[in-house]
Design brief:
The chain is built from seven helices and nine strands. A five-stranded mixed sheet has the order 5-4-3-8-9. Strands 1-2 form a two-stranded antiparallel ribbon. Strands 6-7 form a two-stranded antiparallel sheet. It has one domain: Glutaredoxin, CATH 3.40.30. β6 and β7 form a beta hairpin. It is of the alpha/beta class.
């Protein structure tokens, strides 16, 4: 699992932390990263969101399985698809044992991802569940996982990107927080960590 030695990678591969967007709705990027890195406070918690079909999905329905939770958005040009591909490769490497793991993708861009979420998650692992909700619902869940994100306006004024922490969260069979893997984690390392938790 990630420790202080992964701090530089974590910072560089996630966000610059200089945007003030959403500051009133969430702690600062630096505070959330420090809390996550050094284990301050709880991580995770109950949530109820909706999948692309409009069905409500709760964390409690995944009890008995390990959960991989990832926050991102479908317009993300690099970090999100790379991390989701690493998750896919790790699950493929586990073979039938991957049935004991539920990967979840929670969009931090519900406005734009309302229509494309189903196709996006389908391009990765077959078991990946995409979840969305209202902006307030997403913000609440993200804050509970200490995930920072903020819109960055594009040059044209109408488009935007999102600075965000690209972290792979690992949750236990009872919903307890196990730890996280930093952005751009090698699929082989992720496979090794997942195999260890499956054996417990």
């Amino acid at each position: 699992m990630a420790g202080p030695g992964a701090y530089v990678l974590f910072v560089v591969a996630s966000l610059l932390g200089c945007s003030s967007a959403g500051a009133a709705e969430q702690p600062s990027a630096a505070q959330m990263m420090d809390d996550l890195m050094y284990g301050r406070g709880s991580v995770g918690g109950p949530f109820t969101l909706i999948d692309p079909t409009g069905k409500q999905r709760s964390d409690t329905e995944f009890r008995g399985k390990l959960m991989i939770v990832y926050f991102g958005y479908t317009y993300c040009p690099d970090v999100c698809p790379a991390d989701l591909m690493a998750i896919t490769q790790a699950l493929d490497a586990l073979g039938p044992a991957a049935d004991g793991i539920q990967p979840i993708f929670i969009t931090i861009d519900p406005e734009r991802d309302a229509k494309g979420l189903a196709d996006y998650v389908a391009s990765f692992h077959r078991s990946l569940v995409g979840l969305t909700g209202t902006p307030d619902e997403i913000r609440k869940v993200a804050n509970s996982y200490k995930t920072f994100y903020a819109k960055v306006p594009g040059e044209g004024g109408g488009d935007y990107s999102i600075d965000h922490t690209g972290v792979i969260y690992l949750m236990g069979r009872n919903g307890e927080y196990l730890g996280f893997m930093p952005p751009q984690t090698d699929p082989g390392k992720l496979t090794e960590v997942l195999r260890k938790y499956l054996a417990n």
